[in-house]
Amino acid sequence: MTSFATGSTPADEVVIEARDVHKTYDTGSVQVHALRGVSLTVPRGEMVAIMGPSGCGKTTLLNSLSGLDDFDSGTVHINGTDITRMADDRKTEFRARDMGFVFQTYNLLPVLSAVENVELPLIVSGVKPKIARQMALESLGRVRLREFATHRPNQLSGGQRQRVTIARALVNRPAIMWADEPTGALDSGTAGEIMDLIVELNREARQTTVLVTHDPKVAARCHRTILMADGVIDVERTQSEMAAVAAGH
Amino acid sequence: MNDIFGLSMTYIAAGCLVVTAAILALIAFIAIRNPVMFKMGLRNIPRRKAQTTLIIIGLMLSTLIITAAFGTGDTLTSSITSQIYEMAGEADEYITWDTEKEAAPADQQVIPLARVDELRQQFAGDEDIQAFLPFLTEQLPVQNTRTRLNEPAARIVAFRPADTEALGGLKDLSGRPVTLGPGELAVNKELAEEIDAAVGDQVLAFYKGTPVPLTVTAIVPNQVLGGSFQFRQVQGGATNFEFLSELTARGENADGVFVSNRGGVRSGLDRSDAATAKLEAALEGEPYRVEAFKKDGIEMAEFFGNILLTFFIVLGLFSIAAGVLLIFLIFVMLAAERKPEMGMARAVGAKRRQLVESFLAEGLGYDLGSAVVGLVAGIGVTFVMMAILESAAADEIGLDMSVTFAARSLIVSFCLGLIATFIVIFVSSWRASRLNIVAAIRDLPETRPLNPERATWLGYSRAILNGVVAGGITAISLLAALRFPGQAPLFLLAALVGLPGPWLGMLRGHNFGAPAADRKSGERAPAWPFILGVCTLPFGLLVIMGYALALLLVRITRDRKPESMPGWLLPAGIAIAPLGVVLSALQTRGRAVAWSVGFGTVGAVMGALMVQWGLEANQMFLFAGGVSLIFFWVAATLRYFHIHERLTFTVVSAWLLALWYLVPGKKLDWLVGPLEGDIEMFFLSGVAMVTCGVFIVVYNADIILPVVEKLGSRFGRIMPAMKTAVAYPLTSRFRTGMTMAMIGLIMFALVVNSTLNSNFERIFLSEESRGGWDVQLMVNPNNPITGLRATVAGAGVDTAPIAAVGENRIAYGWEAEVENRDGFENDDGEVKEFSRLTVIGADRDYFQNTEISLKARAAGYPNDRAAWGALADGGALAILPASVTAEPEGFGGPGEFTDVLRLKPLQDGFEPFTLGLRDPGSGNIVTVTVIGQAKEAGEIFWNGMFVPLETHKEAYPDAKGQAFYLSLGPGMGSRQYARTLEAALVTASAESLQKVLDDQQATSNAFMLVFQGFMGLGLIVGIAALGVVASRAVVERRQQIGMLRAIGYKRGMVALSFLFESGFVAASGVLLGLLLGVSLSWVLFTSGSVGEESKNAGFTVPWLNLAGVSALAFGASMLMTFLPARSASRVPIAEALRYE
To answer: Which of A4, A57, A177, B1054 could form a Cys-Cys staple with A231, CB 3.0–4.6 A?
Structure first.
């Protein structure tokens, strides 16, 4: 089991606490140990990057921590609440209320406009449609896309789509934003803009952000970077260490 | 069934087998030439077992429906045929007196036995005629003295034993010979069952009121020798010839002569024409006619079988059409699912043709499976339908239904289903193969190459040129050849010019058509068109010729294409066919063609021809079909020029919809004249109207979405599910429209059928049909009753419950003629001076008590009572039945197959007019003045013209039909009183009118159930389509489902969203079919298009029935979507988000 202390950045209240998390995929003929006892704590407002080679368990860790996927053993506490044995519906409500997600492939509903996509988590949480629409427009404003509110995803560029995703992730002002390769499908210029936006929003709202990335430049924008290998946390790097790596890279 | 739609079933079966063999040969060819693609196709079948099952269920529908339709036709034909052969036995023709040749009193319409002997001698040793059987016959009431059961109208016959010897003699049920002495009776099986007779029983037969004691000595089969002469009145018996002759005082005469042909019961039929001709020649100048009754009966069986087959095929066409849409949808979706695989296959070197081949291999796997399943299911469905009919309506139909399938029918059903499915698979495979490799691999939307001529007149002209060349010349020329048969050779020549056209388009995109610089070596022109031609010889010769010419033309022009083509040449090419073919070959390679405009224009030209033809021939099918094609061209043109798509499709569809309401509603008669249509219009109108309706809904549903959302917002928890549910269907217009059309089509057919049927039931089977009477007494013609009350009282029955009695004297159509005043043609095309019509003479009490409503009264009669009262007062007045003015036009109007009197429709307040009543026996004519016409409801029990009793006796003195109608006082049940009368009166049969109505209602309901069930099969298609679409949506939207779950959609919410989505499509289809069906039924019914009788009869909607059908359709749709919805809700979030 590998355990790491919280980094030096705003380290008052722990928001994410994972202990000895194990996860094995059974493909029928082969068993893949994706997580082999990962423990991790993330305080409020921290931006953490998870890096590592393909198949090391980055996305599995993110999915397990966020409650998107079940794990075999260990515990995960979010804001002090144990989600390990939470029923599916409760977990879903918890996600809708306290978490936001950004994915590499945007995962916007092609049949809904930008503002409709953004307001969806609010409607799911039972927010009145009028208020939801207002909050969604505000959120789009924060990512500077208010004028594209009625556009469908296929009428937007890749960067704009990802900004809509971020707006959707932030619309319910969640405690945590999870991002899986948020810049993976973007060119370097657009990727930089998106990271600027994520950092800016993190700073403004003191939101905890956990992101999975392959890109050291992206990781270098985070307070802390966790490097994974073979289903375990291999090493932890500070922002300055990563900046150096990124510069060398 | 020997033929269908005028084509021999043997030829159809042979043709189907040839085409099926060609398809199998083509697949075998693919398997040998390209085993990898063949295997790739086949291995896809077991990949998704649930989906494969769904596909096979969907595809089997065509075969199932065709099989069931043929099975129904075969069963009816074979049941009637068997019964006719069984009844007729060895007898093939009969000779009777012909009143048209010589009028004579009924008891003198005989043939001397001496003349029969002469005929026997004349035809001794004849190669066609074997024997003559003179017979005597009387319809007598018979009572079994042991059981006290009686039959008021048993046909008692007598043959001379020596005559019957030639046919093997009279035999009992166990095959023992029966010899009848004086006073002995052999009852047939039917009569034995009715009066519970056994050998040794004493029965009384009543002749002119005198009881004649007879002893039952045998029970014989229901054959002519045993008194079974008529199809639905088989009860009878045989007695000694001399005995009956003495009783009826016939002397040395017979009532008629049966003739038996050489050969057996069935094979003798082949000689019927020759025998009839010989007999007619021999009887030339004598007052006799020869009826080939067995042959006529068999033809009638074929005719009824064909009617039923045609009816079921037309009803089934809706399901088949929906099935075709389903097959297309399934293969489009399969192609969408496999897009990346197909893109990869293309990237590594597979050609488009090979993709088509792979799909064809897979498709044929489904096709064969579904054809087998469909055949078996169709046989099962036929058994179920026949069982329902037999259990509910056996007495009404009067048949022993035994399900029969002719081998030919099974072959045709199997092959037709397989061929229809294969054609659709071929088209959809070809469409699927036209993919962009990169877009397919990355699963991106297809992109179109830039077209500089898009939305320009140049592009438009080019589209027309290509449309005309690629089939237009041939299609227009063939239609013109049919339209103008005088110039047919010229148009057929023009059609030949167009033969290379269809291949030019194909070769333009092929390596063979590429200029030298782009042409890859080693690739030759496709050989399959030649193979297709060889497989479909002799017509294939034209295919081969056209393809060879196209190859030659492309070979000559491929390296000689001009840089650009002057725009003015295009119209010249469109106008001059040979020039157009050359110009088409010379076009720049790769230039996009707006095919919808090209074919739309060809359709418009053909449509204009059809409109002109339809107006001239008064054919609604041609007119409405032609106008629809022109509308399609208008829509294609507007769309081409980027006129707002929603506006274009909405307006054009609405106009077309209006046309389909106006034409059958006769609202355009002032402009286009009366147009005639038949049952085919039902299908055509359904397809056209549902298509228009789907376009309107699909293009405008977003207008109602805010309303739906608003509704959803009232139920906060389901709002998110509702939001995604309504968004998806409108972004996939193709899928949504297709699925909606499938459900809408079937619902339309069901609704029109149910609504019209219920309205006709209301007209004919209502309380009004009883005309104010409760019990009907049909009196034996040989034992008339004088003074019913006294007779009833004399039989020991209390007459107190009888409130009123009316007497009818009936001259049936075969013994009464009425002047053909309006000169209508009879079914043989002749305009005879007199036509057949049943004439009813009624007494004063009847007219004073009848409550039959009149639909038209002559001027001077302010109400119905005044008109009936005038008849009650006597005089030469008449009231007509409703059916004499029924029009033959509309959706299968009556009168087409009869030679009964028909007159021009009467308006209320018409001027009284006269008609001549002629007695065919004497030739005497009595003139009556028509003062009214009864409503249709009256025809159930009184299908004839009313005249006062005295007038009737004067006009038809020999008429023997007699009936009494009783009105009962309060508290007396008509069924019970009818039973009491029936038991007490030997010479009359009594029936409760209400019971008759109830029985007919039950029969009608049984038929309705069968029709609805048969059409409802098509709903399986729509429901399967929803299942396929929903299953596919789960696969396609896996990642989106994961995202929804990630942001807070609970499992139930995801499932609900899918259910709502399917519910939206199903409800739209159901409502569309309901709305269009009810409205068209209203138009048809109230305009009199389905029969004059419906015109002023009001209109009701069977809401309960329709609600049941709608709920069933909707409920089944939801059930079908439940599994995909559940599977969507169980998608693992992390996996879904990560993997495509």
So the answer is: A57
Contact B912, B860 (CB under 8 A): yes
Report chain B residues whose CB lies below 8 A from the CB of A100: 1047
Please, where are the H alpha helices in B972-1091?
974-984, 993-1036, 1038-1047, 1051-1087
B1098-1113 tens-digit pLDDT: 888 999 989 998 998 8
Give the span between the Cα atoms of A77 and A16, in whole angstroms. Answer: 6
> What residue in A sits closest to B1132 (Cα-Cα)?
A69
Instruction: Count helices and strands (H / E) in chain A.
Output: 8, 10
Could you read off the pLDDT of B180-206 as tens digits, one per residue?
989 999 999 989 998 899 999 999 888
Nearest to A96 among B719, B723, B1048 (CB): B1048
- Is it the case that residue B715 has pLDDT exceeding 80? no
Domain map (residue ranges) of chain B:
3-47+68-82+309-441, 90-264, 456-593, 608-694, 715-766+995-1140, 802-968
Residue B1 binned pLDDT confidence (cut-offs 50, 70, 90): low
Of the candidates B713, B730, B1045, the beta carbon closest to that of A92 is on: B1045
Partner-chain contact A97 B1132, CB within 8 Å: no
Backbone angles phi, psi at A71, to 5 degrees: -125, 165
Q: Provide the sign of the torsion angle of the four alpha carbons B727, B732, B735, B741, taken in this order.
A: positive
Contacts of A97 in chain B (CB under 8 A): 1048
Note the pLDDT of residue B1092.
Answer: 67
pLDDT surpasses 60 at A7: no
Partner-chain contact B1133 A69, CB within 8 Å? yes
Residues from chain A that touch B720, judged by Cβ atoms under 8 A, are: 120, 123-124
* Lowest mean pLDDT, pick from B397-406, B452-461, B831-840: B397-406
CATH class of A45-57+87-248: alpha beta
Give the DSSP H or E segment for B481: helix B473-483
* Assembly ipTM: 0.71
Per cent of chain A over pLDDT 90 is 28
The nearest alpha carbon in chain B to A96 belongs to B1048
Q: What pLDDT does residue B425 have? A: 83
> Which of A60, A96, A116 is nearest residue B1047 as measured by Cβ atoms?
A96
> What number is the average pLDDT over the span B951-975?
91
Most confident of B86-95, B303-312, B869-878: B869-878
Residues of chain B with Cβ-Cβ distance to A102 below 8 Å are: none
Kindly identify which residue of chain A lies nearest to residue B444, measuring between CA atoms. A154
pTM for the structure as a whole: 0.74
Among candidates A59, A95, A97 on the partner chain, residue whose Cβ is nearest the Cβ of B1046: A95
The pLDDT confidence band at residue B4, using thresholds 50, 70 and 90, is: low
Interface test with A, best of B447, B1047, B1058, B1135 (most A CBs within 10 A): B1047
Measured distance CA(B486)–CA(B163) in Å, rounded: 58
A95: Cα within 13 Å, side-chain hemisphere: 31
Smallest Cβ–Cβ distance between A112 and the set B445, B727, B1050 belongs to: B727
pLDDT band at A187 (very low <50, low <70, confident <90, very high): confident
Going by C-alpha positions, the residue among A214, A66, A21 that lies closest to residue A225 is A214
How many Cα atoms are found within 13 Å in the side-chain-facing hemisphere of B477? 21
What is the per-residue pLDDT for B420? 82
Residues of B engaging A, defined by a Cβ cutoff of 8 Å: 445, 713, 716-717, 719-720, 723-724, 727-728, 730-731, 1039-1040, 1042-1051, 1053, 1132-1135, 1137-1138
> Which two tokens mark B601?
């224009």
Percent of chain B with pLDDT over 70: 93
Closest-CA distance of chain A to residue B701, Å: 14
- B1040 and A124: CB-CB below 8 Å? no
Copy the structure tokens of residue B175.
């095959």
CA distance linking residue A129 with residue A117, whole number of Å: 13
